[in-house]
Amino acid sequence: MGKPTRVTNRIRALRFAAGEMTQAELADRVGVTRQTIIAVEQGRYSPSLEMAFQIARVFGVPLDDAFEYPKEA
Amino acid sequence: MGKPTRVTNRIRALRFAAGEMTQAELADRVGVTRQTIIAVEQGRYSPSLEMAFQIARVFGVPLDDAFEYPKEA
DNA sequence: CCCCGATGTCAGGTCTGTTTGACATCACGG
DNA sequence: CCGTGATGTCAAACAGACCTGACATCGGGG
User: Fold this and answer.
1) What is the predicted ipTM?
2) B55: nearest CA partner in chain A
3) Least CB-packed of A20, A62, B48, B55 within 10 Å?
4) Distance from C-alpha of A46 to C-alpha of B20, rounded to nearest angstrom
């Protein structure tokens, strides 16, 4: 139980928008584990900046489009 | 000796552009340590996505403007 | 000259992102 | 009915981000 990750993402939506891309395939393309994709997709924790960049790149969208950070606590 | 952080940033430039903002002040505003700012600024490691968002927000720029990720290995 | 603010370094320790591997469920097709 | 692909869960371990605290340097003022 650490801090709830305030960062949200649109990975799932982007996956489906990209022709029903599977979690396993995304994980493979990004170079991480399927587990990691699941955890991030579910918002259990936020990815590293590098991983965020790679994910956004896979879908061809800017970072701010794939991930969002709410205003203040 | 881990992996060299492929992510680069324009923090230093942004700091000076923002009226000579000091590392300590940025650290304070972002809510991290001065050490962390130094390390990130020097590219010793890439920040978390949350921290990246906060930094970009301090300077009022989009993520992709504050941080860059080079093409391929 | 001395002090102080700003930057940088080093050592150690904590926390969380990431991995590996095993396993459960559900939908689908043969 | 059985097998398989996609998703999800849990546990344990490792790695890297981040912290604390101490200290070194350099430049500018008083």
Assistant:
1) 0.90
2) A69
3) A20
4) 31
